Every structure is written in C-alpha cells, then in structure tokens.
Amino acid sequence: MISVKLYMLLIKASLRSRMQYKFNFFFSTAMASCVHICEFLMVALVMMRFGNIKGWTLYEVCYLYGVMMISRAIYRTLASDVHHLEKYLVSGDLDALLIRPVPVLLALMTQNSQVLIAEIGQGLILLYIAIQALLASGQIGWLVIPLTGLMIISGAIILFAIGLATAAAGFWLTRIESLQNMTEDASQTAARYPLSLYPKWLQGALLLVVPVGFVNYIPTLYVLRHQGGIGMLLGTAAVAAVSLWLAIRFWKLGLSRYQSTGS
C-alpha cells in the first residue's frame, strides 16, 4: 500500500508538471486523434467494401481495435518512460533515479506521465459502437461489458510486461529502439486485427514470442464468438501474470548488471 500511495503521488506530480504547457497537451492530443482516426478509417473502408475478412465482420475488428487501443493507452499512461529507457541509459540520467529513496522502476514509471485522452476516448467509442451493434444482432449479451473490462486490464498488464522486458534488454544492448519497434509498435499494430489473417509462423510469434495476441484476439474468440470456453479467459489471465513475473525478474537481473556511462 505504501508503494501504491507513493506511485500515485509521483504520478500526480508528473502530470501537474506536464500540464504547465497546456497548448502542447491539447495539440498533441488532437494530432494523436487524427492519426488513429485515419488508421482505422482505412481499414473500415476496405471492410465496408468487402463485408468481412475471413469471416471477421467490421464490428468484430472494431472491438479488437478498441481493446488494444485502450490497453496500450493505460500502459503508456501509467508507465510512460519504461518505453523510453534508452535515453536514460545513453545520457546517464538513470544514475539520478538510482540515488532516489524509491525503487528505480517506480521512479521510472512516474517520469513524464501523460494521460492519453485521445487513445482512451477513441478506444471507448470504438468499443461502444461494436458492442451496440453486436448486442443488436444477438451475437453477444450484456455479460460482454464486465468481460471486456477484465480483458483491458489483463491486456494492459501484458503490454507493460512486454515493454518492461524489452526495456530491460537495454542493460545489455543500450540501443533498443529497433527492438522496441518490433516487440511493441509493430506487434501491437498487427494484433489490432484478427491473427487468423496472418501466416502460421507469424501467429505463433504473436502468441508465444511476443504474446500480444492474448491482449485481445484470444479472449475475443470466447467473448464474441463463444469459442474455446472460459479457459480462453483464464489462459489470458495466466499469461498476464506469468509475463509480468518474468519481466520483473528480467528487469532486476538487468539492473544488477547496469554500468553507468560516467557522464
């Protein structure tokens, strides 16, 4: 509880400092909204033309997209600078976090925090549209709402674990931007759509190597399509717990090997 309270205090302080530049906040929010709207509209236009892709309807893809967008936004809101560890390693700024009277990971997670309003808002809109349409068609029931909430929470944990493990690799590699492009950016973009669209080797990579498929695709098979039974959700929760445990262990190992740049 002490760690949680400390984390909340640090997050509030970071957000207050970010809000000193209100124009920058609103401008970046507007630009992020435009980017995400354009990305989804391109997919929506294609699906509106052809009806469905390998049996997946527009509303089902909309649901996948919304869950991934919100899970990612929560991760980046609550642990923003985990994704930017490289700059701390290169500049030597991690040394300043090491001498603080708080755990290094906690200090890093609360640096430069920002609420990704655009991503969260758009994700909620996409989920609302998808759930309303699927409820009207009788494909799902109202139980989908609490199940979706659980999916988003477990999804945020999985994405945080992937981001933390990738960041921890920086203690050996230092330059990890290219690695992050694969494990975070590219994989999350791919998982916004049904994994059945991809070849088997890529599906395996997105489930076993970088488990982003468990953020939305696997639980969605049960929630929307009633496939696989409740084990799909339990498996997702287990993947989230194991991924987080492994990522924290890897982070601690990497931190123990950290050598300052001396700058």
From TrEMBL:
<feature type="transmembrane region" description="Helical">
    <location>
        <begin position="230"/>
        <end position="248"/>
    </location>
</feature>
<keyword id="KW-1133">Transmembrane helix</keyword>
<protein>
    <submittedName>
        <fullName>ABC transporter permease</fullName>
    </submittedName>
</protein>
<dbReference type="InterPro" id="IPR010390">
    <property type="entry name" value="ABC-2_transporter-like"/>
</dbReference>
<feature type="transmembrane region" description="Helical">
    <location>
        <begin position="151"/>
        <end position="173"/>
    </location>
</feature>
<keyword id="KW-0472">Membrane</keyword>
<dbReference type="Pfam" id="PF06182">
    <property type="entry name" value="ABC2_membrane_6"/>
</dbReference>
<feature type="transmembrane region" description="Helical">
    <location>
        <begin position="21"/>
        <end position="50"/>
    </location>
</feature>
<feature type="transmembrane region" description="Helical">
    <location>
        <begin position="56"/>
        <end position="75"/>
    </location>
</feature>
<feature type="transmembrane region" description="Helical">
    <location>
        <begin position="124"/>
        <end position="145"/>
    </location>
</feature>
<keyword id="KW-0812">Transmembrane</keyword>
<feature type="transmembrane region" description="Helical">
    <location>
        <begin position="201"/>
        <end position="224"/>
    </location>
</feature>
